[in-house]
Fold:
Amino acid sequence: MNDIGPALDLFAAMGIFSPLALALFMLLAFVFQIKLPEKIIAFVVELSVFIALAGILGIVFLFLSNGVKKWGYEPFPTFHLESFHFDFQFYFDWLSLSFATLALLLCFVIAFFSQRYMHREPGYQRFFVLYSIFVSGIVIASLSGTIESLFVGWEMVGLSSALLVAFFHERVMPTRNGLHLWIVYRISDAALFLASYLLHHALGQGFFQAILEQGSEGLAHEVSSPVLIGAGVLIFLASACKSALFPFSGWLPRAMEGPTPTSAIFYGALSIHLGAFLLLRLNPIVQLSPILAWTVVFFGILTALVSGIIANAQTDIKSILAYATLTQVGIIIAEIGFGLDMLPLIHIIGHASLRTYQFLRAPSSFAYYKSLEESLGRTDLNKSVPKGRKVPAGPFSLAIYSFALNRGGMDSMLEKFITKPFIQMFKLADIFEKKWGSMLAGLDPSTTKNQEERS
Amino acid sequence: MNNFFLEASLLICLLGAVISSLTKSQEKIRFITIYSSFISALCAIAAYLLFKSLHQGFITLSEFTAPLPALASLLYFVVLLCTPRTKFIGTDKPFPSSLLLVSQALSLLICSSSSNSTLFILLALEPLIPLIDLLRRGERIRIFLIHWIPAWLIAMALAFASHLSDEATGILITILVVIRMGLFPGHAWLVYLTEKCSFTIALLFITPITPTLILLTNNQLLHNTHASLYLSWLAIASIFYFAGLTLVQRSLRNFFTYLCLALSAMVTLGVCSHEPLEITAAYSLRNSLWIALTGMAIIVRALEARHGGLSLFQNHGFYESTPMLGIAFLACGLGCVGFPGTSAFISFEMLADEIIPSSPFFGIVIVFSEALISISLLMVYFKLFCGRKIEWSNIFKVRLREMIALCIIIFLIFGLRFLPLSDISTTHHTLEKIASLHPH
Structure:
């Protein structure tokens, strides 16, 4: 191990710091309003992702050739102040290396695709700034060795995703959808933050290595189970929001407002699987309680069923793909709930690769279909267009169809029972504030209202 | 050699205020104001850099207070630097240049003050600046006086009355802090102030979260008299209430005010604690928020200077014409919610981490409120910078001065913790040292 130590350090630094350097470079250029040529941007992005990928593959090679199975990398000293410590550590094992390799490989492919897809787009540089933040975030999250470093990556992924959904910001809908995504992600962040606190409280630190080495049985013996189960519930909530499980699935079709490459990389391949990755990483905690494990299975299967039904009633290709993705993610979550580890990982890798391909082909699929038909000699394509399915007649079928068309009513349900009462409460408080302020200031409340309306 | 830079910094501000009040040409007033503030900032920074190598002057700085005058004067300079020329020249309501310089001098004194009674006197003097501005602008001052007449009396009593019992002192400090900090229910005057006062004066009054220093110096007393408990409950109610109000605001200024109030309450909650780590976190968070909120206010002012009062009913689409303001708004917003990489990140993590064991309910409210604030920040960002493209003329483009000011703010948001004496460990050690020098 000592012989390969320096090489491992070098490769790890390549894998982690190359995307970070890219994000910093792109951000600085963006802040100082330096307009970089498209070719330079594409070259820098591809080079950086390639270096990171080479670094990760280098570690994989060293692991395989030397029989190493796990390794921790700590680039920065731990921030330590009395009882508070913030550990920014990375952990390399079969799970983190597989997910990071997948992430970087797909990011590399998407970077190649995007340089042409986004060609002459006014927000070309902005796209790659956000893209580089996403790449850094996903690398940090997948290689994180502590819950703190995972949290950093998790937040970076969340912010870049929300801003990329709202990429075409001259239209209102993408910004609304970006905000919707951000709201769900912030719930996820809050849950992860509280879970991180509980883990620290229960274990005295947030190292994944310690959790994995102890396993469910070791954890059950050593620490207070209710606290760890509480952490497990919060981790599941964070994963459910990130992976769009039922009832948080509403953001997924909305997220398709972003450019196609981001739909492919985020919602077809990586972001959507990040929740599953977190559950897989902290599976010993989930498996501590059979009730929690079965809850994970239940929500996984429910998500798969509901999204399978909804996918059948969608009318645009991106929404169909989004719900089809969700069906598979639901199954992956259920597999994790069953306590499996290798199968969900293989499922994630295969599924992410397939969906990336499908999402990237989605905009050109009709042109491809047309050229295929024409090459077969069918020139009048209207004749070969399917007539469309009949609307089901029975009351049960109609109910299912209506449920699918309304996308399970998840958004309206959350809005009716949570968002609306909450906002209404604060609107009333705001009215009270205005009246109270006007009364104290000796102003006529109607004058204040009129001024506001004019503004 | 003695370190007289802080005294020089103070004198330059006062001298600039006198000269600018005697000058008639508005162009000259602008020149005098900006350069006085700049030289004063340079002197304060020199005082900070030479703090350890030179002997103290008349105003003694401690390790704890050393970075504050430099930060205060730098932020004053940044705010003045990017004040649009049209604010100084050619308006019916002349820009309060001399008031701002006096305010800068007062701020320098507050930041370097370590005596309790001096702090109370300065805290009582500070609101006179916005009051004078309100009078100058012909606005009503009833709401201001309703809150501040009792507050002034309390501040004077705390500064001069020597026979007050600990319980009475604790209650009086609580009332004073509720009013000055704008905790619920003593906040209505601050909302009025940001609406009616010159926004530059208002932003420089609200963003420093000054009463933190009072709470720090009286921490033990507040703890002994249970006043800190009342303050904590008021602070937690304020955090949630104001964070929720940021979601439903229809005017940009009101949004900014409630954002400031929510974050100030968060700092208050931390400083009220008796745990050294929590106090350290809250104090570091206060410094980070001071910068981020000042940056946010500069952007609000820059947008209002171009467009007038902004409603949050519709999308404005400012990004295409002023992308720099959009980027800076996001950076300041992230600085306010302690996003990874910003200087508030560790402070916020530490604060929540330390609060949860003593009160899980408080911890959950803080984390939830922080999520609400970050949601409202992105919502406002989308409202301001996204939407239909507006073809604006070049006069609306971001000026070089604004660009420099925003770059300084962004640098401080992301790099403050790298500056010596500003990082959390140093703050913690200094607080510990102070505690050991003044055993309770």
